[in-house]
Amino acid sequence: MTIQSLIGTANTPPLACSPQAHLMTGVARRVTDGANAIAVTGSCGQLAGILSDQDIIRALHGGSGSAAHAIVETWMTRNVITVTPERAARRGRKDDGVP
Questions:
Q1: How far is CA 64 from CA 16, 26, 57, 60, in A?
Q2: What is the pTM of this model?
Q3: Rounded-to-10 torsion of CA 63, 16, 34, 56
Q4: Alpha-carbon span 28 to 64, nearest angstrom
Q5: Which of 13, 21, 52, 96 could crosslink 17 through cysteines, CB 3.0-4.6 Å?
Q6: Are strands 16-17 and 37-41 parallel, antiparallel or unpaired?
């Protein structure tokens, strides 16, 4: 089983927002699309990070009530580990030693 077989074959672009987007814009896109994370992409489409549930919780808890005015870049997870669609799914699991 490959990663591609888990994510499907649809050629839909990944859900994404810019690092300069307001945090609540990212949250709204995730809610609308039913996603549990959103890719954060730079101006050339390069992956800059992801905005996960944990990032949003950190913003709400540590943002001193300013989450509504925060930008994605402040709270996103950086240094995301990626794999190719052809990679065996078992090798993509954390307990298989993938850093």
A1: 26, 19, 12, 7
A2: 0.73
A3: -10
A4: 20
A5: 21
A6: parallel
Q: pLDDT (tens digit, 9 = 90+) per residue, 49-96?
A: 999 989 988 888 876 667 778 899 999 999 888 877 777 776 545 555
Strand order of the β-sheet with 37-41 is 16-17, 37-41, 47-52
Indicate the angle between helix axes 53-62 and 23-33, nearest 10 degrees. Answer: 140
Contact predicate 30/15, CB 8 Å: yes
39 φ, ψ to 5°?
A: -70, 140
Tokens 């888990």 belong to residue: 6
| Residue 8 backbone class (left: φ over 0; alpha: ψ -120 to 50; beta: rest) | left
Q: Which of these, 42, 31, 34, lies nearest to 16 by C-alpha position? A: 42
Nearest to 41 by CA among 87, 67, 72, 6: 72
The radius of gyration of the chain from alpha carbons, rounded to an integer in Å, stands at 15
